[in-house]
Structure formats: structure tokens, C-alpha cells
Amino acid sequence: MTEEDMGRERWSSTVGFILASIGSAVGIGNVWRFPYIVGTNGGGAFLIPYLVSVFLFGLPLMMLEFAIGRSTGTSVVAAFRSIQGRFSVAGLAVVAVAGLVLSYYLVITSWVLAYALFFALNRPMEFGAFTGSYFPLIFYLISGTAVFLTVRSGVREGIERVSRILIPVLVVILLFLVVFALTRSGAAAGIAFYLSPDYSRLADPTVWTAAFGQTFFSLSVGMGVMLTYGSYLERGDLFQNASVIAVTDMLIAILAGLVIFPLVFTAGLDPAAGVNLTFITLPAAFLEMRSGMLFGALFFTMLFAAALTSAVSMLEVPVAAMMDSCGYSRKRATLLASGIIMLFGLPSALSYTALELELFGTPLLDLSDYLFGTIGLIVAGLIISIVGGWYMDRSRICAEIGGCRWQQRVYVALIRYCVPTVLLITLLASLLRIGG
């Protein structure tokens, strides 16, 4: 008997739910984005606004998503409709953002898969040569198929099973790479660049907005993922579960920096390479070291595990919405959602191939990242915080999060006033940065 025959799917245990949620939160951004953001925004001092952002803004929004999902027992669109019928459109907007982010995220996931294979076969390829061919398109189709097959298999047999395997693998490889990196000759200089605190930067508003942006980007909040995952949860302390997920996500991001910067400084490469750090700077560092092919393969395998679990969680959002709102079977919903998302992502995939699709001189992948991964994600977070915080019955929220009355009052104040304000500030800062 399948899970669909037994009714709505559920996690097999709280551990399975936490691992799947960690898999969603831990993604490519933890490895290349977080270390770079820390290194260029005050080093160790950046951890202060980041911790404030995680525990005062990211964590409450994650708990709100879990509370809405578990309380309504359904996915984004149907959950919003149950709060008030007019919010169905808002729910559709959140689902659309998740799908559009996934459409270009799959492209980067495919690059990671390609590099893992190239290093494993001892055939590393320079990034310019890789994107100057049609290899990226082939790996895009492979990555999309892997995500499709995982989600098609269901919550327990697909998402949870993959997370139970890949998250421990990711952590073991990461710890191994940390030990290796810290023994390199450039480790001290790399750690100094990464974590040396520049407390004067705490007076810079852009450092705080960078912390807010990294928090929402990294924790997978604002896309309806955690709401959808929460709808499969029957019991458990939401604050405790969300805290475990947030702290684990943060620790993995910090450990990634302890891998990256020692390797970069040992090879004498640019530590401020930004996005290029993963696909240009680090491969060059691996090529300069003994057993570099092995460590390169391990690094990109770890990164692919993070990318795959995040991509799976994003696909589950539209799939669950189709199942709950349209009555589709999981197989049909997964096929339809995957097909639409892959088609939307095709221009982004082709923008970094020999075809070089561009708009206004900018690759379509970069435009998608600006529009969907930055602006769209923040707008979706605003929608969830406003609909859930202001229009969902307060007693339902408090019943889900538990705690005493004063804790509940603090939480409601955070989710109604602080989180939307921070998201709005981050949105305006992002718009000004893009406009500039």
C-alpha cells in the first residue's frame, strides 16, 4: 500500500523531518555565499548581526511557516485559502517564487554535479571551456531528472530517505575537508581573513542588511518550503526543532569557510572572488595541491548533496500545492511541475553555454537570480509573514508554538512587526543595490 492510499503523507519521525528541513536550508549558498559575505563584511564581527538576524527574524518566520503548515494540515495555497479565501492568489505567488527560484537553482546544481564528475574522473575542465560548450545543458537535464525522481517517490520514500543519506554524508565530508584545510600552509592567513573581527563595520547599515539577506537566503524561509514540510508533521516542539535546523545550518556555513579560505590562501588566489569562488578559484586551488583530484571530487560531491536536498524541497512546494488544491496524484503533479520548471529554467541554462543567451548584456541566469532569488524571495517572505502573522487566528499560532503567555506575546510582536519591517528594509536595500 502506498502513502497516497493511506491519505496525506507524513514524516516517519521527527528526526526525518529535521534532516529534511536541514537539507532544505543547507544549500549552495552555505558554501560559497556565506564565507564570502563574512569575509567582506567585517569578518568575525559579521557573526553578531547574523546571529541577531537568525534568532530574532529567521527563526520566528520559520516557526510561523511550520505553525501554518501543521495547523492547517495542507500546503501553501490551500493553507492561505483556509486563513481567508482571498489569500489564494497570495499563496499562488509564493508557490510561483519557489518554482522560479528552482528553475535557475537547478542550473547551478548541474554545474556542481559536472565538476564532481570531472574531478572524480581526473578530467577537470576550466569554467570558461565548460560554459562555452553544451555540457551545462546535459547536466541540467540530469540534475532536473534526479530531483524529479526523488520528489516523485514521496515524502518518506523520496525526500526523507534521500535526506537521511545525504545530510550525514555532507557533514562527514565537510569535517574531513575542514581537518585537511586547517593543516595547509595558508590556513592561518585564510582564517585571519575570514574571521578577524572588524567591529567598526557594525556601524555600517549595509552589513546588517547583508546579514538579514543571508539569513532568509540560507534558512529556506519565505518560499513556502517550511510551511509545506510542516504540513507533514504531526507532533514535536516547533521552537526546539526550528532551533536545531537553524543552528545546524549556521554551523555548516561557518565550517565551509574554514575549508574554503585556507585552501584559497594556500594557493595564493583571490579570496574575494565572490560567485567565482566555487567554479573558478577553488578548482584552481585543488589543481595546485597534492591529491587535488580527490579533494576536489569530495568537495563538489558535498556541494551537490547540499544542492540536491535544497532543490528537492523547492520542487515539493508546487507539487504539494497541485496535490492539495487540484487533487492530482503525486506522480502527475511531479511530472507537471517538473516539466514547467525545467522549461522556465532552460533560458537560464542556455545563458551559460555556447549559445550565451543574454538580455541587456546580462546572462539570463544572473537576471533570474536578481529577480527571483533576491527580490522574489523577499516579497514571498513578506507575504507569508503578513498573511500568517496578521490574518491567521492568533490562538492557533500560539497553540502550535507553545510556551507561556509572555513568550507568545513576544513571538507575535516579532512576527507581526519586526519580521515584516526587516524584510521591507532588506527589499529596499536590494532594490537600491541593483539600481546602483
How would you briefly describe this protein structure?
It contains 18 helices and two strands. It has 436 residues and is mainly alpha-helical. The chain starts with 13 loop residues before the first helix and ends with a helix.
Strand order of the largest sheet: 1-2
The major sheet is characterized as:
2 strands, antiparallel
What would you say the CATH architecture is? Answer: Orthogonal Bundle
Average of per-residue pLDDT values: 91
> What top-tier CATH class fits best?
Mainly Alpha
Helical segment tally?
Answer: 18
CATH fold type: Hydantoin permease
Q: What fraction strand?
A: under 5%
Distance between the termini: 57 Å
SS class: mainly alpha
* Number of DSSP strand runs: 2
Domain unit count? 1
Uncertain parts? 1-6
- Order of SSEs: HHHHHHHHHHHHHHHEEHHH
Gyration radius (Cα, Å) is: 21 Å
- Give the overall shape: globular
Helix content bin: over 70%
CATH superfamily: Hydantoin permease
